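Ticket #4471: structure output looks truncated?

Reporter: J.K.
Steps to reproduce: submitted the chain below (413 residues) through the standard prediction queue, then opened the result file.
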Amino acid sequence: MLSRLLSYAAMRKPKAVTQSVAIRARRRIVVGVTHPQTCLVLTGRLRVLRESGFEVILLSSPGELLNQVASQEGVRAVSIPITRGMAPLADLVTLFRLCRLLRRLKPDVTEFSTPKAGFLGSVAAWICGVPTRVYLLRGLKLERSFGLKRYLLLATERMASACAQVVLCNSDSLRGKAAGLGVAPHRKLRLLGKGSSYGVDTERFCPGRSSVRSKFKIRCDASVIGFVGRLTQDKGVPELIEAFRAILRAQPDAHLLLVGWFDASEDAINTGLRHYIERHPRIHYTGFVADTVPYFRAMDVLVLPTWREGFPNVALEAAATGIPVVSTVVTGSRDAVIPEVTGLLIPPGYPEAITEAVMKLLRAPERRERMGLAARAWVRENYSNERVLGQIAAFYENLSPLVPRDTVECLKA
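Returned output as attached by the reporter:
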């Protein structure tokens, strides 16, 4: 419809159309996520899109982080309330608002991600006839769902993918999982390089000194097991706490450093466990932390006992800091560790496996150091900001022309 209108206008008023195209010399892209917290994983990505010549508009539910990230990246922020859980009536209202917004903005490209924004945003972009529609698949929430809920989540993933022309996957194993579940045909599923949303600033995430141990009154020679991320069931926090109890029996000087926040999501941990974490003298809970570098430097090993991922950047950040990683063999997570080289992989849901893997590393400082050096070298070679963001820039620069091809042809005529 848009191309026909432009063609008609070009034939009737060529000068006006030429002026209009000149005014919109920059391509406009809308990047949308559900929750403002997710905007944090877009840092660098938004900037590189802007520097590639795009006018970038960041969209999420209202929140301080939306405005902070947009200001930091030099892009425009737009907010629309989007619920995270299932809410049919609220979702219809959101879909209407998204359609109205996209019709007003007239973007050349959209990139929606996270389950709810990915679904509603992709459908709205299709309805509005956005020329180039990208669905960024960051993970599959359905992997931890069952019954009717799993069926509905799979249906929404397939619908989001059907409305997009390209489905970008965060990791190779996620691409394989999506193909196996029939989320999208192979021709639509794309992986840039070896994965990751934005890579790692390896100059910032590097070995060094930290005051975190003294802040929490942890001795320099004590063992510190770390975790970074949302404190939820899907991240394996209940299993980690159970494993830590066993670790304390074997290594009484051990501390558990939880760098993250109690997320009020569907997989939130129960109140009893939360109180246990907050009151335990050897468990140090930080809440949300903007700069995680000094916390990584205070750790001996990072543990991410997750049940599902797209590609956990915290594992790469720990590796860049020279910290070995213990994680699970689930989708996405297994791409972030080279077993026995940069860390250890274990099955999800087994506190005993966490205990065994952590104790292996705590009792072998030379092995930990060897793994940390290998981990940093691996991340610098494959996941530096420059490499990953360069791949993203190249992808979007070549994804669509400045104006639709039929418009260019009619202008030439």
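Triage note (M.O.): checked the attachment and the full token line is present. DSSP finds 17 helices and 13 strands in the chain.
Status: closed, working as intended.
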